[in-house]
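Thread: "does anyone have the structure for this chain?"

Original post by V.I.:
We have the sequence but no experimental structure in hand. Need at least a predicted one for the grant figures.
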Amino acid sequence: MLWNVTTAEYLNSGHMACPGCGASLSMRHALKVLGEETIVVLPACCWSIIAGGFPTTALSVPLLHVPFATAAACASGVRRALLSRGREEVTVMAWAGDGGTFDIGLQALSGAAERREDFLYVCYDNEAYMNTGIQQSSATPAGAWTTTTPAGKEFAYGKKDILEILRAHRPAYLVTATIACPEDFLAKFAAARKRRGFRFIHLLSPCPPGWKIDSRDSLAVTRLAVDSGVFPLVEMDDGGRLRLTCEPAHPVPVADYLRAQGRFRTVRDEDLEPLQRRVDERLESFR
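Reply from O.Q.:
Generated one for you, tokens below.
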């Protein structure tokens, strides 16, 4: 499918993102699909800075800054306020990092999903607390360097499986995506816009400083995550099972993905085989 993406821009120049930031590029194209009838609910995260200092914002849609733990709770309130005014056409989108989703905001997220609240929750996952100095989160993968795991995150404590947690709530829509695979990304945001009920999109979002990569390589490295099977592109079907929406275009070993990033410099060769096996088994389970 070739997309005819609008030339309208809802993320303007003057934002504060780092070069190569996947979170800013993802927001730009997400809003191109969702359109101007969108309200963004933003907890503490990198995007609190990217959007610009109060009272300005780089976004051309309404933006509500909320406390770290409350993205899903506040999005629930915004949606109900809109419904009380008969504004069903407006998309409410909570946009949070992995810290505000996997960790600090998990209780509000679970509550909103359990209540079947009608909004879209997007987690842009850069796999650490990047805004406050690259500390480990429960989304940080095993072996990754952070300032709190200078020898690499222990393999006994791998990345939390947020998809399985959300799948247990039986949401109306549950997918993974990355702007490095744009057609899949755009199709999933278009589908999320049309759905009703609680919807969750898990985005892999490269962070050049945190991943220790050159900013010009952000999309190429993220594509390696997909092609290696480390970040499969999946969608929950009507039976509640997660299925691949995009097979790796050019399958590569997990080692190729890890070696492209400085944050995995402490991963030893003997760690690669069991890691490759776990990735292969997980990828096969989605077929």
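V.I.: this helps a lot. The chain has one domain: 22-285.
O.Q.: and The radius of gyration is 18 Å.
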